[in-house]
Amino acid sequence: MAQSSTSPFFSLEELKNLKSTSETGGLEKVVPLIQRKVNELDNTELNIAVTGETGAGKSTFINTMRGLRKNDKGAAKTGVKETTMEPTPYPHPNLPNVCFWDLPGIGSMKFPANKYMEKMKLKKYNFFIIVSDTRFTENDAKLAKEIKQLGKNFYFVRSKIDNDLNSLKMEGVKFNTDEELEKIRKYSVSNLKQAGISSPSVFLILNFKVNEFDFPALKETLANNLDDIKKQVFLLSLQNTTLEIIEEKRKELVKRIWMLAILSGAVGAVPIPGLSFACDIGILMTAIIDFRKYLGLDDASLQRLTIMAGKPVEVLKAEVKTPLVGEISVEFVKRMLVGSAVDAISVAEAVLNFIPVIGSLFGAGSSFLMTYKLLNDALNELTENAQRVVKAAFGTD
Ligand SMILES: Nc1nc2c(ncn2[C@@H]2O[C@H](COP(=O)(O)OP(=O)(O)OP(=O)(O)O)[C@@H](O)[C@H]2O)c(=O)[nH]1
Ligand SMILES: [Mg+2]
User: Fold this and answer.
1) Which residues of the chain have pLDDT under 50?
2) Domain 45-233 classification at class level
3) Which of 83, 136, 207 to probe ligand 1 with, by most ligand atoms within 8 A of CB?
4) What secondary structure does DSSP assign to 57-125, as a single string?
5) Going by CA atoms, what residue is nearest to atom 21 of ligand 1?
6) Ramachandran region of residue 83, left (φ > 0), alpha (ψ -120 to 50) or beta?
7) Rounded to the nearest 10 degrees, how much is the dihedral formed by the CA atoms of 102, 105, 106, 110?
8) Residue 37, class by beta-carbon neighbours within 10 Å (0-12 exposed, 13-18 middle, 19+ buried)?
């Protein structure tokens, strides 16, 4: 049973619990359990602290992670001397639960390091990014040790790699880029080791190029070190800059479909006038609207991608060929349901065999199955569109 490879959002333990609850109390008894799980996702907060010395590139990094450039609405100010000594929150434009916090570097404070730790309330952050555009300082290391004491993760980011390479070019030096990068990495690591960090990993990035140097590896590492729900939220917040990111998002959204389908199945029979089966249209409409936002197909996301990719928005919009980005009305979803109904029965057996625990909860033709089928189709269609957009944006395959 390839249960873990499809990873429905519930653990086996939870499924067994759902099953026994429904057997003793009826399906309606499981609704609050599932609703709680759905809410857990929507309410999960992720607070990411970005710190480092003045001018290191913190604000630029935060903007890039949010898919923004300095002149965009809501972007953090860059290239100016920060005057605020307070942590400044920058919520993600699509997922405001994901928040980046701009923290002044310890060195920029007029008070001693231990006061800094106190004032910055380090406990509230899920993990820390420590940025430097030159060498990491004693202060950076001191902060990392403090973070470690709190049992949290920290990541060293060496920004402005382009400047290093440009300087070599200007000096007329013949060089091999990979070798130079390795030198910078070794130098940064030995810096940090000297300052007492045992095995630091350093990510070399250029803040304006999300697909170059260690930027992709950084995002992957950040995601992989988060627990299930936080990982999902983080992944969904990433801008669609590679096909891999889209695939990761798709996998997370499949988990969501399972949950919504179970919810719909359990809330059950909301009869739909004109249709021969029951389904919760509200769940479907909300899911489609959410999915296209997570997959970067809403207008605002496309606009942001335009800026990142340096391509006109028309070029990206031309790749979006699905009515799913239009207005999602009750009538629209009904038409989709009618279209899905025919083959829903044919997938019924496959799905129900695949997840026997759920299969025994819901029958063929149920609201569970219709929701599962319709959202899967919608997700596949949106994913294909998102893939075309990212190819057009970055010319990748
Ligand atoms: N070439 C290059 N310039 C960068 C990079 N990242 C940031 N910059 C520039 O470096 C300058 C400082 O960047 P900020 O993001 O404002 O730095 P900061 O750490 O927020 O600075 P403070 O808020 O003053 O502490 C700006 O002019 C940025 O455009 C990079 O990766 N490469
Ligand atoms: Mg700044």
Assistant:
1) 1-8
2) alpha beta
3) 207
4) SHHHHHHHHTT--TTSTTPPP-SS-----S-EEEE-SS-TTEEEEE---GGG-SS-HHHHHHHTTGGG-
5) 55
6) alpha
7) -90
8) middle
Rg of the chain in Å (alpha carbons): 24
Give the rounded distance of the alpha carbon of 38 from its chain centre. Answer: 17
- Tell me what percent of the chain is helix, strand and coil, each rounded to the nearest 5: 60, 10, 35
pLDDT of residue 174: 94
| Closest among 56, 133, 53, 66 to 96, alpha carbons compared | 66
What residues contact residue 250 under an 8 Å CB cut-off, 6+ apart?
295, 379, 383
Give the other-Cβ count within 10 Å of 66's Cβ: 24
Name 203's bridge partners.
Answer: 157
Residue 141 beta carbon below 6 angstroms from any ligand 1 atom: no
User: Token pair of 92, please?
Assistant: 């993600």
Whether residue 231 has its Cβ less than 6 Å from ligand 1: no
What is the value of pTM for the model shown? 0.90
The answer, yes or no, to whether any atom of ligand 1 lies below 6 A from the CB of 158, is no
- With a CB cutoff of 8 Å and minimum separation 6, the contacts of 226 are 46, 126, 127, 234
Q: Which atom of ligand 1 is nearest to the CA of 70?
A: 29
Contacts of residue 254, defined as CB under 8 A and 6 or more positions apart, other chains included, come to 6, 7, 376, 379
SS3 182: helix
Q: Which ligand is nearest to the CA of 54?
A: 1
Domain spans of the chain? Answer: 3-42+239-394, 45-233
The DSSP line for 118-154 is: HHTTGGG-SEEEEEESSPPPHHHHHHHHHHHHTT-EE
For residue range 262-293, what is the model confidence (pLDDT) as tens digits?
A: 888 776 555 666 666 667 888 899 999 999 99
Question: What gap in Å lies between CA 241 and CA 306, rounded to an integer?
Answer: 11
Start-to-end C-alpha separation, the chain: 33
